[in-house]
Amino acid sequence: ALCLVLLTTSGRAAGETSIVLDKPVLPPNWALLERALLEAHEPACKKYFAKYFDERGYLLCVERWGGDDGPDDAIETVNWWPILHALGASDSVLHMYKKVWEGHLRQYTEAKTTDVPFARDGMYYKEFPVMMDWVHNGEGITVFSAQSLSDPYDLLFEQRVRRFAGFYMNEDPQAANYDPKHKIIRSMFNGSRGPLLRKATGLDWAGDPIEVKGRFKLAHGEESYEQMVAHFKDYNDIVGDHPQNMGATNLALNAYMLTGEKKYSDWLFEYVDAWAERTRENGGIIPTNVGLDGTIGGGADGKWYGGVYGWGFTVEVPQVPGEFDNRNIHSRGLSGFGNAYLLSGDDRYLDVWRQMIIKVNQNSKLVNGQTMYPKMYGDDGWYGYQSQPYHHGAFEIWYWSQKPEDRTRVQTTEWLRYIEGNNPDYPETALRAEISTLQQKVQAMDRDPTTPDTRLADDPIPFNPARVRALIELMLGGYFPWVGGKPLHCRVRYFDPVNQRPGIPKDVAALVETMDANSITLQLVNLHQSEARTVVVQTGGYAEHQCIGVRLPARDVLVGESHFTVRLAPGCGGRMRVRMKRYVNQPTMLFPWDR
Prior knowledge:
The chain is built from 18 helices and 20 strands. The protein is of the alpha+beta class.
């Protein structure tokens, strides 16, 4: 059955499209598994919180600064918790995350270095890293950015969103990170105390001296502090801009989506457009150094491929024989173009990265009859050849564009096979795997032998029970955002209008079964056999998609908004085809009943 009604219930707008599903269904296995996974997180997260945090939300560890272990790792211990809440997990998960967020801000403001010069007055200043690269800055804002999906109305959240974005828009006189003349962020080390405008040292990266062997197990495998410093001995050329710095556009995006103020989108477009132009000037390959004078390679002896984490960044690792190719431009650099696309829907932002993938792979060569593709570029040209084509960012470009030619460059995954109709068992298989992994993490947490004085900030991360990847894919038709503070790209999200919160209501399960450029097939089920449930379905993570209409077995319903309401009778469910225009609305953090 289907009807159009004028809703006067608190929290819903008059004239909103409402769909009633009143056909009883047997509970599908995928729905039972989905609810089981969502509900398993509350006790697991509570156990994790009790083991690794005190009543203030401070992490029970030895506080350190640096690329090995630092403030970003402390808050990464609760990665994905706000997304869990936004999917429909218990409010307690959100409350624990917020206590950890507030606690780690105080903890690392109080924590100070002795030898590293720029963190001697606190590793955080104004609740943000004093200055570090965007691999680490981005990791440190991952859960903060995700709070936009879960609790964007928190006044402190708004203050911080504005302040953090302001660090890169020269709104803070102590953080002159951005040069508006040359449209560059002036150093790869940047933050609340501004840019580091000298060569970095191993000390800057590794942090203060520390006892290692017999006490700590470092993620890079070092067995002494001397090896920690030696690991970063070549990480020197940081002055000038780097594609990594486009991670800062996530801050401006957050501010725009929360406030709607044009100054934030203006800055984002200005900065990303400058990178697009530099890439075109450099023959279609994004340069990894732009000097303080705005010239490509100007801070790396004129080499467009120079600088730390550049195309030519091959270094020695003291604890591992040989050399290591450590180019790192993709995640943060791609996010800048993706953010501009989210705001504009303009394919030219995707084409910058799309053409770079094509151009890199045009430098393939035959080796013993096999085609090999480069991944690095140095003084002697392309190197680092491997059997797989260069494909970094190919998946995201296809997900955003939905163009068939972009799909040809994407490595097939089990989820892609599923939404393309070739892997019907995937929902159950993926959800069972996530439940099993959650169980394993809880068991491993019990066996963790570390104590607060032998524990570094990143030690608890492997035991974090939050499992959201399959839920994002199956419930939302989206993809896992990894780290970096990037937005959540998905086809649909859910809200509970009765309890006025984000996430799918209790007892309801959702499955995105198929997906193409203009629609998805969505199945909704109410597992409660005696009570009705109501769910608001929003098109897009931030209402960036416009729902054109919903097709049910009996009829089509025109919507013409970024959301619609479904009322599920007890024990009922159904399948619908949701038609949409993607990336046509300005994204917003506001919940449907507040728009």
